[in-house]
Specification:
Chain lengths: 177, 304, 440
């Protein structure tokens, strides 16, 4: 069973708020680098860059991060593992890295992402921005910026769809019957 | 896919997947910290029944960069005469709980034989005169890196095709990816009944004409005494790559060599060190490709 | 031994007398006492045999629907004793042979020590009479130690019981020695059996040279390595005389050379083995060491030529080249595994396929496996004549079964036919007065 939770407009509003919060919390955008986690996080990071530019009229660097090589679950994943692009556009040393992901769930992806970032250098801070926080954390990780908290059960699945991938922007809840 | 024992045994899509994944690993190798935790907790044994410095070093580095625990087991060929059978050796090693076995062996088919008899993933580091799959993969990766593609390229492989596992794997790999393969060498060193689509030249000048890629093979000095060619001097005259001959290939042709080179015999120093030579990049790419192979095999281990 | 056996209503085939009819055979004291046959048209009428015996202990075997043929004569086998008892012994080898319908075997001299002197010959024959289940005819080495250098003492070995000479496993590479052996063998009127293989052309090869050797990256053995020596030996036998017998013919070229030689009246005979007309080099795929054999399995074209050679009489004999090896010896890298196939227990079934396929008639096939080898070896075997030893096999040529090497009696489980379904098998073999019944 599939249920639409958020539409294009909702997503846009949430992201705009997050963009403001990022600027506010960091007192500007100096030393900031957005790093999207493959694949959804990359689209969101690029959108945030545009919004921040709209507000501050300055570009922030945006990178992409593939965490496959840092995962702890290669053994239990199905299918051929695919390693996507990792591109960090700046020296991470002493930067404020803002990790961007679509859904925050167990926290394991974020743990992997932090490990990956650390292998590039020693950032001043790592912050986390997510569109959806669906709960069920397995690690002591929390987001600095959250679009929406959506409590879910373990049997449900949150799927974020993007125009960049040829879909309509929306967030849907899938539940196994 | 549990093992990588040869290019013959895998599909075009497998090759493409390995090459794509390898480019991600090449990025890793450009970082300050050239190590990822992807295969942390996995154990690999490098089982080399033939002396090898390059392939073994490349595998070992690839394994360490994937955070694996690495065991090295070098068995001199001479001990093959008496003593433990290959199967017993390998079963003993498997009992240590290894996840990967990288094997180089002087008998063709030895990796296939082992793969059939163990649960660990077996990766061939070269078997007899059969195949050297990871070398062919790194060669393909290097060509694509330089030329952007393989399909339709004219690629000459020059030298002792008969005894070269590098050549064999390259023939299969390049053909699967749509390149046009030419083999150049004396008739004594070209095998019979080659796969379809491969053309043979005994005249190097003719064979090298208009090629995009020239792969030189190392000539084994021992072949001289066995009547495959009369002398290295004559071999060099007929099949050595020098600057003049390189001029017959396309202007932007690249020159490759799996190493170690016999400078002045199959390849002149001028050519080895020229702009068109990608010989040192092949070495770096070898690590990335081997990381990719182990990563992908590991992903498939539990899923089949 | 004194028991009498009556085999009733079998389809008797004996090429030596031209018998191809339904009939009865009475065996007394291990010898054939009498044969009575009826034409096939009258098969329903011979309900009551006229054969009578004095012996009260008469065992009757109903052979309806079965072929009754002379016990097969296998002129090319390796029984491995002395020296390689872990691979096979005279006891296990002959037991396996009998299961394959074979009642007389020639054992090649490449044992350890080599059968190149009468002491070894005597040892083999002593073992044969003590433990052998069927008849054994040793073949002596042509040269001392099979080294190809000096003639072995053929005369003494002949006196001790050798029926032929061969350096099987290799060629006598020195043409002069080969000439001398052909000349010298004339004293005893025995065949010189030539394993044809130019060792220089073999150059450490392990399978047929061609498409598959390239594909598998295995060193190839060209057909020319066999054909060059077949040609040489035919030429030498013209020069030297003697009775040249070409062992295990595997190539089209060899068949042609032998055919031409026979047309020109050269005194040459030839044999092939079931694997050379049943499978090709493709069987080696996957580095299957059980398909590693010398001469190597060849191509489809060669298989067809061998069949043609069998059909037109160029090839006189089908022998097994039974070459058992211990399992561990085949469980090795392809290069290191020894050459050879365990052949006793599949030979007749594979050969019967020639009959099923219409290439040979049943009498033609049986002739190549009984009378012809017996004639070449000049041994009194391979026939069902009254007064001769009662060696025979009862065949059900329609019965299908699956090849299961683990059930082989031979110690050698090395067969490329593992898992094949074959049609036709011996159900009873009678040899040395004993009945071996495999119907269970």
């Amino acid at each position: 069973m599939t249920k639409e939770l958020l539409n294009k407009k909702d997503i846009e509003r949430m992201l705009l708020r997050i963009a403001h919060e990022i600027i506010e919390k960091n007192k500007g955008i100096e030393n900031i680098c957005l790093v999207g986690i493959q694949r959804g996080g990359v689209h969101l990071a690029k959108r945030l860059r545009l919004m921040i530019k709209g507000i501050e009229n300055t570009e922030v660097p945006v990178g992409s991060l593939d965490i496959s090589l840092y995962r702890d679950d290669i053994r239990i994943r199905k299918g051929h593992p695919v390693v996507r692009k990792t591109e960090i556009p700046c020296d991470v040393n002493d930067k404020k890295i803002i990790l961007v992901d679509d859904v925050l769930f167990t926290g394991r992806s974020i743990r992997s992402a932090m490990d990956a970032i650390m292998d590039f250098g020693r950032p001043a801070q790592i912050q986390l921005a997510v569109l959806i926080d669906r709960g069920h954390r397995e690690l002591p990780i929390r987001a600095d910026y959250v679009g929406k908290n959506i409590p879910t059960s373990m049997s449900e699945n949150i799927s974020v769809q993007f125009e960049e991938e040829g879909h309509e922007d929306k967030v849907v809840l899938q539940s196994k019957e | 896919m549990k093992d990588l024992v040869g290019i013959k045994e895998i599909e075009k899509s497998d090759i493409e997947r390995i090459l794509n994944t390898a480019s991600s690993f090449k990025d890793v190798l450009k970082r300050d910290i050239k190590k990822v935790p992807a295969l942390r907790g996995k154990t690999v044994v490098n089982l080399f029944f033939e002396p090898s410095t390059r392939t073994k070093t490349s595998f070992e580095l690839a394994e360490k960069r994937m955070s694996m625990d690495v065991l090295n087991f070098s068995v001199p060929t001479s001990s093959v005469v008496k003593g433990e059978s290959l199967l017993d050796t390998v079963r003993t090693i498997e009992a240590y709980g290894v996840d990967f076995i990288v094997i180089r062996h002087s008998s063709s088919g030895a990796p296939h034989f082992i793969a059939r008899n163990v649960n660990a993933s077996v990766i061939s580091g070269g078997d007899g005169i059969n195949e050297h799959p990871t070398q062919a993969l790194l060669d393909a990766f290097s060509i694509i890196e330089k030329k952007g593609r393989l399909e339709g390229l004219k690629i000459a492989i020059v030298g002792d095709i008969l005894h070269s596992r590098v050549a064999k794997s390259n023939i299969y790999c390049l053909a699967k990816l749509g390149a046009k393969v030419r083999l150049i060498g004396p008739p004594t060193l070209i095998p019979m009944d080659l796969p379809e689509g491969v053309t043979v030249f005994h005249d190097m000048d003719e064979g090298i004409k208009d090629t995009d890629v020239i792969m030189m093979l190392r000539i084994q000095m021992e072949r001289q005494g066995k009547g495959f060619f009369p002398s290295t001097g004559e071999y060099s005259m007929l099949y050595g790559l020098n600057i003049n001959r390189l001029g017959l290939a396309k202007k932007d042709a690249i020159v490759m060599h799996p190493g170690p080179m016999n400078r002045g015999i199959e390849i002149s120093s001028e050519v080895a060190d020229c702009q068109q030579s990608v010989i040192l990049e092949q070495v770096t790419n070898g690590i990335a490709v081997r990381m990719a192979v182990m990563y992908l095999l590991s992903g498939m281990q539990e899923n089949e | 031994m004194n028991n009498s056996i009556l085999i009733k209503n079998g389809h008797i085939i004996d090429p030596s007398q031209g018998i191809d009819r339904i009939g009865d055979i009475l065996i007394e004291g291990g010898k054939i006492a009498e044969i009575r046959t009826q034409s096939i048209e009258h098969r329903t009428q011979i309900k009551n045999t006229k054969l009578k015996t004095q012996n009260s202990e008469l065992k009757t075997i109903d052979a309806s629907g079965l072929y009754v043929i002379p016990g097969l004569v296998d002129m090319h086998t390796h029984l491995r004793e002395p020296g390689f008892e872990h691979k096979e012994t005279i006891k296990t080898g002959t037991m396996a042979a009998v299961k394959g319908g074979i009642t007389s075997v020639c054992c090649m001299p490449n044992t350890n020590p080599v059968n190149d002197n009468e002491t070894v010959t005597e040892f083999i024959l002593r073992k044969a009479s003590a433990e052998g289940v069927c008849y054994i005819y040793p073949i002596g080495a042509i040269t001392k130690g099979e080294k190809g250098e000096e003639l072995a003492e053929m005369g003494k070995m002949y006196e001790a019981g050798c029926v032929a000479f061969s350096d099987d496993g290799k060629s006598v590479m020195n043409s002069l020695i080969m000439r001398r052996s052909l000349e010298y063998s004339k004293i005893f009127n025995v065949p010189i059996i030539s394993h044809c293989e130019d060792i220089h052309l073999v150059d450490d090869g392990v399978m047929n040279e061609g498409k598959f050797s390239t594909l598998l990256g295995l060193r190839g053995i060209p057909s020319a390595s066999e054909e060059a020596i077949v040609a040489r030996d035919i030429i030498l036998s013209k020069l030297a005389g003697g009775r040249l017998h070409i062992a295990h013919v595997s190539t089209e070229g060899s068949v042609k050379l032998i055919r031409q030689a026979k047309e020109r009246g050269v005194n040459v005979t030839a044999e092939t083995c079931p694997h050379y007309f049943s499978i090709t080099e493709k069987a080696v795929e996957g580095y299957n060491t059980n398909a590693k054999i010398n001469p190597p399995l060849r191509t489809e074209r060669d298989v067809e030529a061998i069949k043609e050679g069998l059909k037109d009489g160029t090839i006189d004999v089908i022998a097994t080249d039974h070459a058992p090896h211990h399992r561990d010896e085949k469980l090795l890298e392809f290069d290191r595994a020894p050459f050879g196939i365990s052949g006793f227990e599949t030979s007749i079934s594979l050969s019967l396929q020639l009959v099923h396929d219409g290439i040979l008639s049943m009498p033609e096939l049986i002739e190549k496996m009984t009378l012809n080898p017996a004639k070449i070896l000049r041994i009194n075997k391979g026939a069902l004549e009254a007064g001769s030893d009662a060696d025979m096999s009862l065949m059900d040529i329609k019965r299908e079964y699956k090849v299961e090497p683990d059930k082989f009696i031979s110690k050698g489980k090395n067969t490329p036919f593992d898992g094949w379904t074959l049609k036709g098998m011996p159900v009873i073999t009678i040899c040395k007065g004993k009945i071996f019944d495999y119907r269970g």
